[in-house]
Amino acid sequence: MNQRKKILFLLFGFIIVNLITILPAPNIVKASTANNVWSSASFPVERFQAYTSPFGYRRSSNSSGWEFHNGLDIAAPQGSYIRNWWEGTVIKVGDRGACGTHIVVQSGSWKHSYCHMQGKIEQSNGRLYMIDRAGGIQIVQGQQIPAGARIGRIGMTGRTTGPHLHWVLRYGDNYVDPAQVLKAMFSQQPLTNTSTNWSSQQSQIEQSIINEQ
Hints:
Mean pLDDT: 80
Helix content: 10-25%
Largest sheet: 9 strands, mixed
Number of strands: 16
Radius of gyration: 19 Å
Order of helices and strands: HEEEEEEEEEEEEEEEEHH
Number of helices: 3
């Protein structure tokens, strides 16, 4: 590499590093592993295949810039069931925007969102419902949902290039990396524990999330 190429290479690296540092920083917190807090949580996807896009900044799919990816993309065959991560109240159902058909559940200070699901939103007697008739799913805004309950199916609604769940976690106003939460969960839920709705693919899921980090 000649001197000019070396200078250009170093200059390019300097620009990239500084570009990332000036991007708007979202509020992010880390997952805690204290007090066995994750022992009653459920993995959110049946028939897991892979993690296809991690949490954090990434190249935008429709421009030359960078964008903040606020969740974890979990691929599964279209029509696979999605399970509620933690017991809580459905505070929103919707079918507009990049998220497509989605629901948001509140569990204390936590909010968890599930995007790109099959189905659509319908209104009846002044209440909003997320309806997926083919999957036997009917979720009403304000409903209480236990951990592990089926709440939808993998689809391709909204902005997506393939069937997957876009799963977002927030604690208060702060985003939390779902991969860190899954690692904390696996550390407290042994493979022999069948009471928390882990599928037979748990070992594969655990190894995949370890490899992603």
